[in-house]
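thread: overnight batch results

M.L. [08:02]
morning all. the overnight job finished for the chain we discussed friday. pasting input first so we're all looking at the same thing
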Amino acid sequence: MTQRTSHAAAARLAVLLGGAGVLHFVTPQFFDMQVPRALPGKARTYTQVSGIAELAVAGAVAVPATRRLGGGLAAALFIAVFPANIDMARRFVSNPKTSPVVKAAVLARLPLQIPLVTEALKVRRLS
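M.L. [08:03]
and the structure it wrote out:
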């Protein structure tokens, strides 16, 4: 991978994380419903903290001096939220009121964490 390609990968990752971080504050209800019910406290607190984390990691990935650290943090963040994605999929699939299309979408979303983690690790490795 060339230096130019690694910059492009970092830019894509920064935009993805930054956009997701902003959405945590623009449409918090969507993220609140993803917070596992077993966690203590209010879902909104987790939504806001994870939004701040995504914005911070996006910034770290965007800045060349902190890109290596940012790539590692991005991979860790993607891994950390995966249990919540599994929990949400479990809840949606087990709910008879959830449409088959939504059930398929939440299940299809799960394997997408793999390329996110590998892309973040690639940014870390090449920075």
